């Protein structure tokens, strides 16, 4: 197990955003965390990337405890937040340069690795342009490039295709597959796009109101609800009951998502 | 699973780096080195941003210029303020430098709220750089901004005939004082940003703080003419010690009101304390 959570919980006041989550990921798999807005996906990722301390429970990432060995965890993970993490006031090259320095990539390897990453992501031509001028798809690719520059063992992608047009989305999917294939990186991504999860993930976990309500390979889940031909949408509705979202804090979340979508689109 | 597209070079993706062994007992030198290196990286990041868009530095210089040119010139004629052996303009020029350092640093915290709203902060916080280095890097870059203001104010002061001290040691002292001063107020500002978390509240508090900090100091009048209650406030205001050091170093013939060593000791000590507090509170801004 490269990642294992035990009763991982996060409360905001009386709201339980993540409720005793037990999850384990095998090395090299692509795992999708599915759920509507407010289901607790982003909060889970923030805890696993040590940005947010859990209220209860713990997790082991690549052999390190997120509570007591946070510094070591940060060395072996890559993280692409849902918001925009590339700095618009810098060029693509500069964004990667700073990332390389923050992750202590040796000086002798730095330039060559940055060049290779830019090449891999198809950004060599625009490397010295300000990121502010990039398209949404280019920004996402740059963000993924900076998250894998230090060759993390686990890569966390929070809604990697939110706000992207279909072409850019397919490109991001291809890159995710290639990263897994070439690096053997374990990838944990969140999404609320069912087709994305179906195409990309070896296994998916469905989160609803902070709890994991189902967890298996997409096909196995379809079989489990007695409809092998079902779409993942139907599986999703089966497990979450399709009820209207009742969690609080929707305004802030919605405002953020739309802002990101506007900036990327 | 689709096969790899030909032509795409996955050379970046050689092999995962070996996971670091469960190392690290107590290694103070390694930690200090890490601290210095990462502080420098964050300052470099900010400096690169400034290089792409330096407009802010010029707009920021307008206000101190007005203070020197208008307020300074007028009060120099009035001769209402006893400034000992210095002319009023000589007396206030270091105060205006301190003021512009204060103004450029005290709103610096808002950049953190901005970066949090964007998402850039999440990326930096998930990196292995120590929290203390993240905040001291910000403080150092506020110092760099402060130095650009110093250059502009020196130029203006020289034009106005202020009796500047151009000795290298004195200039070096000014550089250190400006960096420490900017670090002080930018860290204070970061701490406020981590506590209030939204831009609107932050701007409100920033406005409320700036003027009292400025007026309860020896920037534009000496401590001696203040009422005693204000003297007490001025003596716990770090700006007073920054002004005191700047005045002694910048102006020929000026003598510090406190020993210079005390000025620098207070600036360094408050910087260290503020780094510790800010590093502690920094992760909160994400929540």
UniProtKB/TrEMBL annotation, chain A:
Residues 3-234 form the ABC transporter domain. PROSITE patterns: ABC_TRANSPORTER_1, ABC_TRANSPORTER_2. InterPro entries: AAA+_ATPase (IPR003593), ABC_transporter-like_ATP-bd (IPR003439), ABC_transporter-like_CS (IPR017871), P-loop_NTPase (IPR027417). It comes from the Bacteria. Keywords: ATP-binding, Nucleotide-binding. SUPFAM superfamilies: P-loop containing nucleoside triphosphate hydrolases. GO terms for molecular function: ATP binding. SMART domains: AAA (SM00382). This is ATP-binding cassette domain-containing protein.
TrEMBL record, chain B:
Its main location: membrane. It is found in: Cell membrane; Membrane. It is a multi-pass membrane protein. PROSITE patterns: ABC_TM2. It comes from Thermanaerothrix solaris. InterPro entries: ABC2_TM, ABC2_TM_bact-type, ABC_2_transport, Nod_factor_ABC_transporter. Keywords: Cell membrane, Membrane, Transmembrane, Transmembrane helix, Transport. This is Transport permease protein. The chain crosses the membrane at residues 57-76, 96-114, 146-164, 170-196, 208-230, 264-282. It comes from the Bacteria. Residues 55-285 form the ABC transmembrane type-2 domain. PANTHER family: NODULATION PROTEIN J.
């Amino acid at each position: 197990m490269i990642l294992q959570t035990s009763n991982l919980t996060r409360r905001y006041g009386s709201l339980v955003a993540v409720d005793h989550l037990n999850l384990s990921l095998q090395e090299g798999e692509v795992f999708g965390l599915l759920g509507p807005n407010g289901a607790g996906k982003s909060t889970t990722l923030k805890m696993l990337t040590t940005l947010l301390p859990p209220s209860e429970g713990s997790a082991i990432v690549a052999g390190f405890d997120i509570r007591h060995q946070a510094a070591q965890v940060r060395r072996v993970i890559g993280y692409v937040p849902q918001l925009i993490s590339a700095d618009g006031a810098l060029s693509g090259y500069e964004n990667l340069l700073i990332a390389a320095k923050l992750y202590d990539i040796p000086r002798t390897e730095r330039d060559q690795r940055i060049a290779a990453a830019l090449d891999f992501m198809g950004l060599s031509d625009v490397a010295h342009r300000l990121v502010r001028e990039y398209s949404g798809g280019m920004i996402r690719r740059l963000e993924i490039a900076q998250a894998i520059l230090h060759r993390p063992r686990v890569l966390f992608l929070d809604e990697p295709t939110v706000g992207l047009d279909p072409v850019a989305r397919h490109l991001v999917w291809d890159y995710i597959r290639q990263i897994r294939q070439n690096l053997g990186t374990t990838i944990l991504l969140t999404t609320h796009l069912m087709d994305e999860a179906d195409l990309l993930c070896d296994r998916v976990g469905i989160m609803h109101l902070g709890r994991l309500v189902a967890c298996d390979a997409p096909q196995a889940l379809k079989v489990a609800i007695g409809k092998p031909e079902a779409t993942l949408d139907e599986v999703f509705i089966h497990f979450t009951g399709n009820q209207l979202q009742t969690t609080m804090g929707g305004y802030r979340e919605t405002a953020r998502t739309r802002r990101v979508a506007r900036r990327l689109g | 699973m689709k096969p790899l597209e030909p032509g795409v070079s996955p050379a970046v993706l050689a092999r995962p780096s070996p996971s670091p062994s469960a190392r690290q007992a107590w290694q103070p030198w390694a930690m200090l080195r890490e601290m210095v290196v990462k502080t420098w990286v964050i300052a470099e990041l900010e400096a690169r941003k400034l290089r792409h868009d330096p407009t802010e530095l010029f707009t920021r210089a307008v206000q101190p210029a007005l203070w020197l040119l208008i307020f300074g010139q007028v009060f120099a004629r009035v001769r209402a303020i006893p400034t000992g052996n210095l002319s009023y303009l000589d007396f206030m020029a270091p105060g205006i430098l301190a003021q512009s350092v204060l103004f450029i640093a005290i709103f610096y915290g808002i950049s953190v709220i901005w970066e949090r709203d964007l998402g850039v902060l999440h990326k930096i916080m998930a990196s292995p750089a120590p929290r203390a280095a993240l905040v001291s890097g910000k403080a150092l870059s506020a110092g760099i901004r402060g130095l650009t203001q110093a250059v502009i104010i020196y130029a203006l002061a020289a034009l106005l005939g202020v009796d500047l001290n151009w000795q290298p040691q004195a200039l070096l002292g000014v550089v250190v004082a400006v960096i420490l001063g900017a670090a002080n107020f930018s860290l204070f500002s970061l701490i406020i940003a981590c506590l209030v978390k939204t831009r609107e509240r932050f701007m409100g508090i920033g406005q409320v703080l700036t003027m009292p900090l400025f007026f309860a100091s020896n920037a534009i009048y000496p401590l001696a003419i203040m009422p005693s209650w204000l003297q007490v406030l001025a003596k716990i205001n770090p700006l007073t010690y920054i002004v005191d050091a700047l005045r002694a170093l910048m102006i020929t013939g000026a003598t510090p009101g406190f020993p210079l060593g005390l000025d620098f000791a207070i600036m360094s000590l408050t910087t260290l304390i503020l780094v510790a507090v800010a590093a502690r509170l920094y992760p909160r801004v994400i929540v």
